[in-house]
Amino acid sequence: MTNSATAVAHANIALAKYWGKRDETLAIPATSSLSLTLDAFHATTTVTVGAEADAGTLDGRPMSEGELGRVSRFLDLVRERAGSTARATVTSESTVPTGAGLASSASGFAALAGAAAAAYGLDLDPRDLSRLARRGSGSAARSVFGGLVVWHGGTDDATSYAEPVPGGEAGGPLDPAMAVVVLDAGQKSVSSRVAMRRTVETSPFFPGWVESTEQDVRLMLDAVAAGDLAALGALAESNALRMHATMLGARPPVRYWTAHTVAVLDEVQALRAEGLPCWATIDAGPNVKVLCSGADLDVVATALARGTDGDEARRVVTARPGPDLRV
Ligand code: 2P0
């Protein structure tokens, strides 16, 4: 039996967002969501079974107590299924800045799920692997697959899984790509987990968010099937603004935007007015990801790199559809 395995998983950015759980323990989301896996950011994780106690490193430094606890609880799920009590060593390297709304937990837990399942000898198909990854971090369910991915929200462990959506390939009729505008790669002030919970519990807008997002996912799948990037992009930008409106309605409010975030939104609107099709989306942090066609990616990225807010720290990373999880 193999007792060491390495997996590589790529980050994903949601076009229809996951924000709020219906079941915290099982990580069942309140809504379905749709995402694009990116080639630009990935995590590489190795799990080696056979140690005194679970231990781990993240980008070469020992994991914090909190990080290790979360990894250890995830490994418990794998051990339970594998009928093993053996502890493991986990080493993870990521090209995604941790905790900055750049989907570090998605690629991190997808890679951990792939490596841990293999190291403990579980034979899981991709759907089951996505269900397992979901337990580590909801959005990790989507990073099991490349390109465009739908996460069916479902109602229980069996029905909440991700699967690829045809049409998200680079160079295809849709040819989706993203310019990632990194404004601040630092750790965010409120974790998405805490912010989601607060939104579910206190935002009066939450029921409207759930209803409209289910509808957005259906409309987006239609847009993908029709190869209509403009329809997909307009829905994505609106969905992201609705997610932020919903969390702004929480008490105390959750606000991830900075003045620089708003500057990028203005720039995207100006580029569209000039005839360059592109649409913004924002996650649990100040950074803005801009969806456009692969053919326009370099022009969009160059325009956004100039900026209008005099922010010297701004960086733009270009990304195209990324691959499936590899073990
Ligand atoms: C998403 N985000 O769909 C949304 C949009 C952030 C904003 O999924 O609590 O780290 O581990 O399930 O997956 C970030 O949430 O949360 C996220 P948990 P996760 O990409």
Automatic annotation (TrEMBL):
Region forming the signal peptide: none
Diphosphomevalonate decarboxylase-like N-terminal domain: residues covered: 9-162
Residues in Mvd1 C-terminal domain copies: 180-306
Broad enzyme group: lyase
Keyword list, A-Z: ATP-binding, Lipid biosynthesis, Lipid metabolism, Lyase, Nucleotide-binding
Pfam family, one: MDD_C
Molecular function as annotated in GO: ATP binding; diphosphomevalonate decarboxylase activity
Entry EC no(s): 4.1.1.33
GO biological process, one term: isopentenyl diphosphate biosynthetic process, mevalonate pathway
Organism superkingdom: Bacteria
Cellular component aspect of the GO annotation: cytosol
Cited InterPro entries: GHMP_kinase_C_sf (IPR036554), Mev_decarb (IPR005935), Mev_diP_decarb (IPR029765), MVD-like_N (IPR053859), Mvd1_C (IPR041431), Ribosomal_Su5_D2-typ_SF (IPR020568), Ribsml_uS5_D2-typ_fold_subgr (IPR014721)
PANTHER family hit by this protein: DIPHOSPHOMEVALONATE DECARBOXYLASE (PTHR10977)
Similarity-based family: Belongs to the diphosphomevalonate decarboxylase family.
Stated name of the protein: diphosphomevalonate decarboxylase
